[in-house]
Amino acid sequence: GEQVEQLPSILRVQEGSSASINCSYEDSASNYFPWYKQEPGENPKLIIDIRSNMERKQIQELIVLLDKKAKRFSLHITDTQPGDSAMYFCAARSTNAYKVIFGKGTHLHVLP
Amino acid sequence: DMKVTQMPRYLIKRMGENVLLECGQDMSHETMYWYRQDPGLGLQLIYISYDVDSNSEGDIPKGYRVSRKKREHFSLILDSAKTNQTSVYFCASSSGSANSDYTFGSGTRLLVI
To answer: What are residue B101's phi and psi, to 5 degrees?
Structure first.
């Protein structure tokens, strides 16, 4: 199994509130989990990642949680701003794997 | 500044014409990829290249072929383009190590009419 499921597909939040995106993976050998942000008309860009030896990682307003037992990981954006509106992709990669498996994306809308 | 460069940025072709999408990277990455992105379908892997002349089909290779004669260049070819190949195509590269992420190009927006 190489699927990565990502939910929700569309997320609308009020400016200043938190946004959460959840992903699950099937391959128990997955050990690297990057998150990409894609703004309209642009390419996906890495914003944060977490490796399997960690359970939590934070970069400014971005928090990533990893539950290896449940094979789930999530992105939390605290104090959302209009500039956070974008498409977000989660992904998973296994040791010795040459590719990451992407989720189908979450379109985040931060409402003023 | 390390980057992946895609050419052209926009392209309009007629059905049945041949299409060549070019991608270059300056990071000496071994592994390169071609994806297409369509609304609601996310990023779909077309082909992966492990190094020069070492290519492998991805999840949706039908209708496409690739060429990698130099490590820094990876081309995607559509022989006889079809209207359902209208999409945004992204090239990416990776060092291939276990915990490395992708660097994406800016994308080529292809319209087949």
So the answer is: -95, -175
Burial B33-72 (b: 16+ CB within 10 A, else e): bbbbbeeeebbbbbbbbeeeeebeebeebeebebbbeebb
Q: Tell me, what's the pLDDT at A98? A: 79
The answer to whether residue B99 scores a pLDDT higher than 90 is no
Neighbour tally for A83: CB within 10 Å: 8
Whether A104 sits inside 8 A of B104 (CB atoms) is: no
Q: Do the beta carbons of residue A89 and residue A44 sit within 8 Å?
A: yes
Whether residue A89 and residue B98 make contact (CB cut-off 8 A), yes or no, is: no
pLDDT in tens, A17-41: 999 999 999 988 899 999 999 999 9
Q: What is d(CA A45, CA A28) in angstroms, rounded to the nearest whole number?
A: 25
> From CA A46, how far away is CA B104, in angstroms rounded?
9
Task: Compare all CA atoms of chain B with the CA of A34 and give the residue at the minimum distance.
Answer: B101
**CA atoms of A27 and A89, how far apart (whole Å):** 18
Give yes or no for a contact between B29 and B97, defined as CB atoms under 8 angstroms apart: no
Query: By CA distance, what is B29's nearest residue in A?
Result: A98
Residues of B in contact with A100 (CB under 8 A): 101-102
